[in-house]
DNA sequence: TAATTTACGTAATTTTATTACACATCAAAG
DNA sequence: CTTTGATGTGTAATAAAATTACGTAAATTA
């Protein structure tokens, strides 16, 4: 749906290119940002080729012409470069690290938006709708994600609970059965305890939904996996982006469930919302 | 600093624009993507102004000329930020509501990135660094944010805890004193219980940090407020974006604290990270 | 309402991109 | 080795797009 990064496309195509096209490619790749700002003449001179060669190069990569190509290149850079170069430096000040962290979260979300499998989401919504009972499990940072999920899904009038205690998780998994859904959240998908819990749940006939990394042990153990590949490169020491992604995916799922329930369900949500009113100071608006 | 989204810049500048510049602005805002693909002539005609007017418009927004402007616009669009708030329709399917929700989260984050007060962040980091003890308080959805914060800040070797029990919060607030920091998270900032807890804490000489809406009762009661104005319009029935924003701001604060601690502190974080290794299945990479 | 500034458009100019075509290079077949 | 056809590349002409210079209209101020 969203186009792949142009830089990668060009890099991949490089070996199969003509002499002059390859020259152009190399010049562009060596400084893509400069390329977006030069005219066709400048670029042609830099690559020691003629202007029409540059033009042909552009058309080869599905652009209408040179300006269109520059546009596409610029877009690729905007979504790509931030990723690469936006790590927090030890000597950053507030003004630098604040936008960097927020940007990297934004980028991750944009990535997930373009990569997430819609049929899979649908499938999970199905599971959740049909569930007799839903358990949200997570450890560490994913524990609070699970808790948040509980806070969201209890509104659907379903028996929902969240647990971050491994023993509790094991016990619940072993007493569950058909119709029970165990929604397990784990960034790595490699935590032994969690995978074991998934195994126990499966062996008792429960459905296990894994919100976790693709191809991880947990992913393989789950009935349905919502896989999220979050490059946690921004930050070496604490989970950051993955939590956020998990939460947003849970928002998506909750929305999916709400929509499936149809408009008749809205009054119920309204009721919950109103129940909080007396706890609040009146808004001046 | 200069990462400000062009679309927002134009929107903000709109009221102060000349007649024809405003016309151009409106045409661009109504379909920014189309604008990046049109020639200056097309755009001028669409806006019923002359070509030089479009050109002047571009220069006003710090572009070298029309092509440069288009480039910048394209970059703004590509950086993951979709314009206008796209609300979920009752008859949306997975393919529609999934990107809508993610986009609206992205939008909100971009807004916060551009609006958040850096000095204020710095001030809060100061407080947290100097704290003898930190309590994270929240109710409902903010409860899990508080819990997440605990999970993040315990790594700094500080006595940290999180609480979502009102009575517990009251008791802790009343037994605190100078050097204690109460970090209170609340989307609305109008929950009576929470504001009262803040009041109690303040009256005992503790520092209260409010992560909440500007101008809310809680904001007024806090020693320092990190105010976040999140238009929770996307969704009537559940808090969505605000949670995420709170979490990301906590990421920012945690980063601030880490950087202040300096490089000597990294081994400690490394140690915590390594402590989890034995709980994991080995990665095949 | 006259003076002055600011806003806007017309038309000329310049820059930039594309097309048409011719020459060159290379590979395979004679 | 040619010859032939195919593909690749550049030159020059043409078209498109953007910018500039300049003049007139509108708005603002005194």
Describe what is shown at a glance.
The structure is a homodimer of 285-residue chains. Chain A is of the alpha/beta class.
Give a verbal description of the structure.
Two copies of one chain form a homodimer. With 285 residues, chain A is an alpha/beta fold. The first copy, chain A, has two domains: 6-85, Winged helix-like DNA-binding domain superfamily/Winged helix DNA-binding domain (Arc Repressor Mutant, subunit A); 118-275, 3-Layer(aba) Sandwich (Rossmann fold). Helices cover 59% and strands 9% of the residues of chain A. The first copy, chain A, has 14 helices and five strands. Chain A has helices at residues 6-13, 19-30, 32-37, 40-46, 51-60, 66-85, 94-115, 118-130, 141-153, 166-175, 192-203, 217-221, 241-261, 266-275, and strands at 133-138, 160-163, 180-186, 207-212, 224-227. Chain A has a five-stranded parallel β-sheet with strand order 2-1-3-4-5, with helices on both faces. In chain A, strand 1 (133-138), helix 9 (141-153) and strand 2 form a beta-alpha-beta unit. In chain A, helix 8 (118-130) crosses helix 13. The radius of gyration of chain A is 25 Å and the shape is elongated. The two termini of chain A are 42 Å apart. Residues 80-85 of chain A have low confidence and may be disordered. Chains A and B meet through helix 6, helix 7, helix 8, helix 9 and helix 11 of A and helix 6, helix 7, helix 8, helix 9 and helix 11 of B. Chain A binds a DNA duplex (30 and 30 nucleotides) through helix 2 and helix 5.
């Amino acid at each position: 749906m969203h186009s792949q990064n142009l830089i990668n496309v060009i890099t991949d195509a490089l070996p199969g290119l003509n002499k002059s096209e390859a020259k152009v490619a190399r010049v562009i790749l060596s400084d893509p940002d400069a390329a977006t700002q030069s005219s066709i003449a400048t670029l042609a001179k830099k690559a020691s080729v003629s202007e029409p060669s540059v033009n042909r190069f552009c058309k080869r990569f599905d652009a209408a012409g040179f300006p269109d190509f520059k546009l596409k290149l610029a877009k690729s850079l905007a979504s790509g470069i931030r990723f690469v170069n936006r790590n927090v430096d030890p000597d950053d000040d507030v003004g630098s690290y604040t936008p960097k962290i927020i940007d990297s979260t934004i980028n991750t979300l944009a990535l997930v938006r373009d990569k997430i499998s819609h049929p899979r989401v649908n499938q999970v919504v199905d599971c959740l709708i049909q569930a007799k009972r839903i358990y949200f499990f997570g450890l560490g940072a994913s524990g609070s994600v699970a808790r948040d999920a509980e806070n969201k899904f209890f509104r659907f009038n379903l028996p929902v609970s969240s647990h971050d205690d491994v023993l509790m998780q094991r016990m619940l998994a072993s007493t569950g059965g058909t119709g029970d859904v165990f929604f397990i959240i784990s960034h790595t998908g490699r935590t032994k305890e969690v995978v074991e819990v998934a195994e126990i749940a499966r062996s008792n006939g429960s459905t296990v939904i894994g919100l976790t990394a693709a191809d991880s042990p947990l992913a393989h153990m789950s009935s349905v996996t919502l896989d999220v590949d979050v490059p946690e490169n921004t930050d070496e020491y604490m989970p950051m982006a993955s939590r956020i992604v998990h939460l947003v995916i849970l928002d998506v799922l909750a929305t999916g469930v709400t929509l499936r329930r149809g408009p008749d369900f809205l009054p119920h949500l309204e009721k919950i919302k109103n129940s909080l009113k007396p706890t609040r100071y009146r808004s001046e608006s």
